[in-house]
Design brief:
The chain is of the alpha+beta class. About 60% of the residues lie in helices and about 15% in strands. The protein has a 5-stranded mixed β-barrel with strand order 1-2-3-5-4. Helix 2 packs across helix 3, helix 6 packs antiparallel against helix 7 and helix 6 runs parallel beside helix 10. The chain is globular.
C-alpha cells in the first residue's frame, strides 16, 4: 500500500510563556509607576508661588465658598427676558442654612442676582454654593455664587461608568482606569510642570507618549499588538506636533492668541509665573490628537493581529495592505470627529461671526477661526499619517515573530 507523503509542517514561532508575558507587563507598569512618582515629586517640589486669589478681599476680610440649603424665599423681583426664550432676570432674598465650612449649621440671609447669561433663580430646597464674606467688624454677608451641581455631576459620572462597564465588560473597566490615569497625569503633573516654567510643547509631548504607553499596557499587556499601537501613536502624535509647529510659524500665530490666554498672561506679567504661553497652541493640538491617534492605532494593530491569526501565511506586504484598507475606512469618520469636535467647541463664536455678516476673508483672518482651523487640521494630519505608520510597524512586528 502506497503511503501518502506527509506535508511539511509549517515552522511555528516560539510562543512566549504566559508567565513571562505577565512579567513583562508588570515590569513596564512598575517602571511607569516609578516615573509617575518621580514626575509628581518634581511637579510639586520647591516653594509654591503665591498667585493670589481669583476674588478680591480687602484688609482683614475673608471669603469662603460653602454649600447651603434654601429654606425660604423671603422676597423676589424678577421678570422674563423675552430675547432669551423665557430666561429670568432679577434678584431674590433667601433664608438659607449653611451646610459646610466654618459656618456650618448657621442660618443666614443670602442674596441671589441673576440674568439670562449668569446665575439662576432658586427654589426652596435647592442646594447652592455661597460666596460668604466675613468683614473686619465681624459682619457676614452671603451671595449665591451658583447652584450646587456637584451631586448631579457625580451621579452623571457614575452613570457613565456603569454604561462603559456594562457594554465594555473588563475592557471597559480597563479603559476607565486608563481615563482616570490620563486625567491625573494632566492635572497633577502636566499643568504644575507648565506653571513651573517647563517647556510647554516638549513636556506635553513626553507626557502624552507616557500616557499612551501606560494606557495600552493596562488595556492589553505587553505584546506586539500594543507595541505596534504605541509606536504608531507616538509617531502620529509627533507628526501632529510638527505640522502644528509649521502652521504656527507660517501662520504667524501662537498660544498668546488663544481665547482664554489673557488670565494666564496676567499671571505671567503680574505674578511672575513662568508660563511658556507661545507653546500652548501646539500643546493643545498634541493633547487633542492623542485620543484620536490612539483609537486609530489600536484598531489597526488589533485588526492586523486578527488577520494574521486567521491566515498566518500572509507576508508583511500583504498585512500592510490589509492595515491600509482598514485605516482608509477609519480616516474619513475620524477626521470628521476631530474637525467637528473643534468646531463644536466654538459654535457660539461661529454663530456670532456669521451674524456679523463678515466676508470670507475677514472671517478666516480672525485669530479665533485661524486657531481652530490650525488645531483641527494639524490633529487630523497626525491621525491620518498614523495609519500607514501603524500598519507598517505592526506588520513588521507580526511577521518577524514578535511577542503575542
Amino acid at each position: 500500500m502506497k503511503k501518502t507523503p506527509e506535508k511539511p509542517k509549517t515552522p511555528q514561532l516560539p510562543k512566549l510563556p504566559p508567565l513571562r508575558k505577565e512579567a513583562s507587563t508588570v515590569i513596564v507598569l512598575a517602571i511607569s509607576a516609578a516615573l509617575f512618582v518621580a514626575a509628581l515629586f518634581v511637579a510639586h517640589s520647591g516653594e509654591a508661588k503665591d498667585t493670589g486669589s481669583l476674588f478680591w478681599a480687602y484688609g482683614t476680610e475673608t471669603i469662603d465658598f460653602d454649600t447651603a440649603t434654601v429654606n425660604e424665599i423671603v422676597s423676589e423681583d424678577m421678570s422674563i427676558d423675552e430675547a432669551t426664550e423665557g430666561s429670568y432676570a432679577g434678584s431674590q432674598e433667601l433664608a438659607v442654612t449653611i451646610d459646610t465650612g466654618t459656618y456650618a449649621g448657621t442660618q443666614l440671609t443670602a442674596y441671589n442676582s441673576f440674568g439670562p447669561i449668569s446665575g439662576h433663580p432658586v427654589e426652596v430646597g435647592d442646594s447652592v454654593t455661597l460666596t460668604i464674606k466675613t468683614h473686619a467688624d465681624g459682619d457676614v454677608t452671603a451671595t449665591v455664587y451658583e447652584l450646587n451641581r456637584i451631586p448631579f455631576l457625580i451621579g452623571f459620572l457614575i452613570l457613565f461608568f456603569i454604561v462603559v462597564v456594562l457594554v465594555g465588560s473588563l475592557t471597559g473597566l480597563q479603559s476607565l482606569i486608563g481615563l482616570a490615569f490620563t486625567c491625573v497625569c494632566l492635572f497633577a503633573i502636566l499643568i504644575p510642570l507648565i506653571l513651573k516654567g517647563a517647556p510647554t510643547i516638549l513636556t506635553t509631548f513626553v507626557m502624552c507618549a507616557y500616557i499612551s504607553l501606560v494606557c495600552f499596557t493596562i488595556l492589553g499587556g505587553v505584546h506586539r499588538k500594543t507595541v505596534g499601537a504605541f509606536l504608531g501613536t507616538v509617531a502620529g502624535t509627533f507628526l501632529a506636533m510638527v505640522f502644528g509647529l509649521g502652521a504656527q510659524f507660517f501662520g504667524k500665530i501662537n498660544g498668546l492668541r488663544l481665547e482664554d490666554a489673557e488670565p494666564l498672561y496676567q499671571l505671567a506679567v503680574y505674578d511672575g509665573i513662568p508660563i511658556d504661553m507661545e507653546g500652548l497652541l501646539v500643546a493643545s493640538i498634541i493633547i487633542c490628537a492623542l485620543g484620536a491617534v490612539m483609537d486609530v492605532a489600536m484598531s489597526i494593530a488589533s485588526a492586523l493581529e486578527e488577520i494574521h491569526a486567521a491566515n498566518p501565511k500572509l507576508t508583511q506586504k500583504e498585512l500592510f495592505k490589509s492595515g491600509m484598507n482598514v485605516g482608509r475606512d477609519m480616516a474619513g469618520t475620524m477626521t470628521n470627529t476631530l474637525i467637528l469636535a473643534f468646531l463644536g467647541g466654538e459654535l457660539t463664536l461661529m454663530i456670532f461671526l456669521y451674524a456679523r455678516d463678515l466676508s470670507f476673508y475677514h472671517m478666516f483672518s480672525t485669530a479665533f477661526v485661524a486657531l481652530e482651523t490650525i488645531a483641527g487640521l494639524s490633529s487630523s494630519i497626525g491621525m491620518i499619517l498614523a495609519i500607514p505608520l501603524t500598519a507598517l510597524i505592526s506588520s513588521m512586528l507580526i511577521t518577524r515573530g514578535g511577542r503575542r
